[in-house]
Design a protein that fits this description.
A 14-stranded antiparallel barrel has the order 2-4-5-7-8-11-12-15-16-19-20-21-22-23. The chain is built from 8 helices and 23 strands. 12% of the residues lie in helices and 45% in strands. It is mainly beta and 531 residues long. A hairpin with a 5-residue loop joins β21 and β22. The relative contact order is 0.20.
Length: 531
Amino acid sequence: MRRPLAIAAALSVLAPGARAGVTDNLATSPTAMAMGNAVTADPPGIESIHFNPAGLARLTGTHHIDTIFVASIRNPNKFVTAPDIDIGGFKDDPINGMSSGPVRQAVALPYIGIPKARLPAVAVPGLGFSYNAPGSNWTFGTLVYLSQAMSVDRTKDPNDPARFDGRLIQLQRLNYLSPTAAYKVSDTLRIGLAVPIAYTNFAINTDFRAPNKLLGTVGQLQRAMCPDGNGTVIDTLTFGLCGGGPEGMVDPFKKAANIDFDMHASFDPTFNIGILWEPKKWLALGLVYQGGSDTTFRGQYMVHADPMLRSFVRGLNSSLLGPIVGAVTGMPAEIPEYQSGNMTAKIPFPWRVQAGIKLMATDYVQLNADVSYADWNKWNQLTFEFDQSVKLLEMARLFGYANSHQATFKMGFKSVVNYSFGTQINVTKKLSLRAGYEPRKSSIPGNQMSLLAPLPDTKLKSLGLRYKFDSGAEVNVTGSYIKGSYDIPARSNCNLNCDDFFNLIYNPYAATTVSGSLIVRYFGASYVRPF
């Protein structure tokens, strides 16, 4: 009976979760990534537009940057059911002992959507420009870059046990225009303002099942009344529990529906304000404030109900007393095989502030350290609006959800403080070596994480180099590795594996321990040149 609630739960979990922690700055700057993103006090050229726009004022003349990023995401999981699992009499979950399979990536193209091609890794280009007139204290620029990204595609294996919590998960925040102005106040002080304008997309395709005790109890009643799955005269004259035939026999471990949706915001401006103070050759301090926004996403949804629930409801309403029970509980008269339409959601984009310091320990060794704070507390709850009554959601009225045109969920996210560190060794005047370390705290509490947003605390480790040419051009190359693990005991997370009788949030792995990891491998390169 709680199956319909899974649809809205998936939306509520994905949107915020996929933005928390690990997705930030993933494919933004090879230079910053090499320094563990600790560059607020030493912002990297044109890419200062994102990290601290005041750094743009350090550039003179006209510059151009081309970047390329290649990233792969892996999310292996293992599922082990509790020895005492009992979902209304059903005790043998077929996913017990299984592991999730291969993961692929894709890139959502603005106004086009997600192409069908799925790759072991994804490549993302970027570019930017800056202009400073001779003798002017003003520098202007713009940058095209991906500030956030998450892509997980599990569709290669149709029996992947993780498909019940996201077959396809896609989130991107592409800043396609970033008008920026920076001003050199003095030889030691610079300020800057950037207005990134983003195209944001997130999509999900997910299979659903409902291992809920109430649903299991209904299934056991059906087995007792009609073992072969066919209705009887007595059943027809009462509640029609078996009126849906063999297809309508309820199994809480069986796939019940699939949802596919794609939402986007085409014009989502924010702003970055930065200050850079360099009082000494060996010391610099930086501060940046990245403003948030109240973004309205719009898109389409498609719900495909499998025969089990459709046949069950049809049988219930074809009996003598079943329609009365349905009317009292608010259940729909029928469930269509397909239901589609438009949907909207207001999803706030949290503001964040970051401060940093740069120290030149010697003429050859540079040390950077940053601290940041993001206001994830504003993800207290999210509301999704549908253009019509969703029939599967009508079944959730039994649990007190009266409005099947919308779904509101409390998320309980927390604001987090993160630290990052980087070092640069100037081997020669042309060659510099870099290393970065960034322990990333997730804003998703451990008891609310799901496979739709498998984002635990992670550690980012990076190595990179810079080479300067006599022409003034330079090449930056970086390789990074991010990993985080989780072990979620059975019945400890009611976004994933609780099995109480009246659990309202989607729990596709009830009474099952889910353990896994998130691994991101990243390569980035940039070529900067004056012209």
